[in-house]
UniProtKB/TrEMBL annotation:
Residues 1-58 form the HTH lysR-type domain. This is LysR family transcriptional regulator. It comes from Faecalibacterium intestinale. Belongs to the LysR transcriptional regulatory family. PANTHER family: HTH-TYPE TRANSCRIPTIONAL REGULATOR, HTH-TYPE TRANSCRIPTIONAL REGULATOR CYSL. The lineage of its organism: Bacteria, Bacillati, Bacillota, Clostridia, Eubacteriales. Pfam families: HTH_1, LysR_substrate. InterPro entries: LysR_HTH_N (IPR000847), LysR_subst-bd (IPR005119), WH-like_DNA-bd_sf (IPR036388), WH_DNA-bd_sf (IPR036390). Transmembrane segments: none annotated. Keywords: DNA-binding, Transcription, Transcription regulation.
């Protein structure tokens, strides 16, 4: 028995004769007749009674054909699922608040747009929420940002939860302001000089499972604006010359687009890491591998533009 023989059998039932089934399936009539004969001989069942009015299924034949229809339905479902997997580009990723990472996501979507189906979930969050999305909410990977001094903690945390780490970028925070800001025309030697300005910040300043942990880097104690997505961040910086933000290296085209300035600050010595994490037990799918390649590419280009060294 093979799938083709079962399809011939169901077609005979549907169209009432071997010749009609052969015509509908664009098959040679002898092949359809042989398939029916093979099935009857193999299983010792008389499936049809031959008559002048056509092929009439026996009681045993009706049960046999019903089973054949169920088998064919399952085969068709398997084929459809396999086809969807081949033609569906799917990505579920959580990103730190980094423009180069969002550019990598756009690069991925531009390539994936050619797929018959596209399912993408792209979030931005701090480290705690990002880890939760990967470990408990079915996301494929997350780009974490943490202080270099916390690296041992994150290594142990990821090992304990079966997460692989892939370094993406290492940097010291840079000062991000509007090009019209007074801070864009001076060098900050002491962080206290920023107290008269307004700090824009977002993200996660605590270690996972330890919400009492204090901030790992100094922030303005008196004047802060917390934002939760980068469009608000850029809009505030553009329209509020007294605002500033600590940032990773950014693509030059983003700085030009949003009329922003990015420069080093001798007073800021915090070393940061951007690290991609994903479950060790599951191999990366082609779409995920593509995103990782594009993420590295954007990180390379961004650090090259800014003069900072990538890991």
């Amino acid at each position: 028995m093979n799938i083709t023989e079962l399809r011939y059998l169901v077609a005979i039932m549907k169209w009432g004769s071997v010749s009609a089934a052969a015509k509908q399936l664009y098959a040679a009539q002898p092949n359809v007749s042989k398939a029916l004969k093979n099935l009857e001989e193999e299983y010792g069942v008389r499936i049809f009674e031959r008559s002048s009015t056509g092929m009439i299924p026996t009681e045993q034949g009706k049960r046999f054909i019903a089973q054949a229809q169920r088998v064919l339905q399952q085969v068709d479902e398997l084929k459809q699922e396999a086809h969807q997997q081949r033609s569906c580009a799917e990505l579920r990723v959580v990103l730190t608040h980094a423009t180069y990472a969002s550019y990598a996501a756009v690069d991925f979507l531009q390539q994936a747009a050619r797929s018959e189906q596209l399912r993408a979930h792209i979030r931005e969050s701090g480290a705690i929420e990002a880890l939760d999305f990967v470990l408990r909410q079915g996301y494929h990977m997350a780009l974490l940002r943490y202080a270099a001094e916390d690296e041992d903690y994150y290594l142990r945390y990821c090992q304990r939860h079966g997460l692989r780490q892939e370094p993406i970028m290492e940097f010291s925070y840079l000062l991000l302001t509007s090009q019209d800001s007074p801070l864009a025309r001076r060098q900050v030697q002491n962080l206290d000089e920023l107290n008269d300005y307004i700090e824009v910040l977002h993200g996660d300043t605590h270690l996972p499972e330890d919400e009492s942990t204090a901030s790992r880097w100094e922030v303005n104690p008196n004047r802060r604006i917390h934002v939760y997505e980068r469009c608000s961040q850029f809009s505030i910086l553009q329209n509020l010359p007294t605002a500033y933000m600590w940032s990773s290296p950014m693509p030059q085209r983003a700085l030009e687009q949003y009329h922003l300035a990015l420069h080093g600050c001798p007073a800021q010595k915090q070393q940061m890491r951007d690290v991609l994490v994903y479950p060790e037990r599951e191999p990366l799918q082609p779409e995920e591998q593509l995103f990782v390649q594009l993420l590295h590419k954007q990180a390379d280009a961004t650090t090259k533009d800014s003069g900072w060294k990538k890991i």
